[in-house]
């Protein structure tokens, strides 16, 4: 079984044994609307907060991306000193054979990368620090 995204679109290909199914995923405010093989599904997401380490961390103009799920780091798309914008994909983590693009929530400069490709990470692990620059511009 495998799921692969088609380019930068909301379309995926799901492989189940020798079958290929087209999957369309649209994100909503409370979850996702999915179409799989012509059937429609609504998937509600619930975010559990177990503590400070499970949420975004903003401290003294520094934002830390923490792992929202357990998985393996597949691709790190930034390096220390690199300028990043809000919504840029900065790291990809694979969990349960799905690739999860984790995006930057602030504009700034990469201050630290705490993981390497192929590292296994658990929920709440520090991944990347961004030194926010937008807050200083008034």
Name of the CATH first level of the largest domain: Mainly Beta
Low-confidence stretches: 49-55
Gyration radius, rounded: 17 Å
Termini, distance in Å?
Answer: 50 Å
Structural class: mainly beta
Mean pLDDT across residues: 84
**The CATH architecture of the largest domain:** Beta Barrel
Helix proportion: under 10%
- The global form is elongated
Your description of this structure?
This protein is mainly β and 138 residues long. It folds into two domains: 2-44, no CATH class; 52-136, Beta Barrel (OB fold (Dihydrolipoamide Acetyltransferase, E2P)), CATH 2.40.50. Helix content is 0%, strand content 54%. It has strands at residues 2-5, 11-16, 19-27, 31-36, 39-44, 57-59, 62-66, 71-76, 83-84, 89-95, 98-103, 108-113, 120-121, 126-132. The chain has a five-stranded antiparallel β-sheet, with no helix packed on it. It has a five-stranded antiparallel β-sheet with strand order 6-7-14-12-9, with no helix packed on it. Strands 11-10-8-13 form a four-stranded antiparallel β-sheet, with no helix packed on it. Mean pLDDT is 84; it is low at 49-55.
């Amino acid at each position: 079984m495998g799921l692969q995204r088609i380019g930068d679109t909301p379309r995926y290909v799901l492989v189940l044994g020798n079958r290929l199914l087209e999957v369309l995923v649209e994100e909503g405010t409370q979850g996702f609307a999915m179409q799989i093989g012509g059937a429609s599904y609504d998937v509600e997401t619930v975010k559990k907060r177990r503590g400070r380490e499970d949420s975004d961390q903003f401290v003294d103009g520094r934002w830390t991306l923490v792992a929202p799920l357990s998985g393996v780091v597949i691709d790190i798309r930034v390096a220390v000193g690199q300028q990043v914008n809000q919504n840029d994909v900065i790291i990809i983590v694979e969990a349960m054979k799905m690739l999860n693009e984790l995006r930057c929530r602030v504009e700034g400069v990469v201050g630290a990368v705490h993981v390497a490709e192929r590292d296994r990470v658990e929920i709440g692990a520090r991944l990347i620090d961004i030194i926010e620059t937008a807050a200083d511009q008034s």
